[in-house]
Amino acid sequence: MCGLFGIIDYKSSLTARQKEKIIKILSAECEERGIDAAGIAYVENDNIKIYKRPLPAHKIKFKFKNNPMVIMGHTRMTTQGNEKFNYNNHPFRSERLGFALAHNGVIYNDKDLRKSEKLSKTNIQTDSYIAVQLIENKGTLNLETLKFMAEKVKGSFCFTLLEQVQ
Question: Does domain 3-163 have CATH number 2.60.120.620?
Answer without folding.
Answer: no
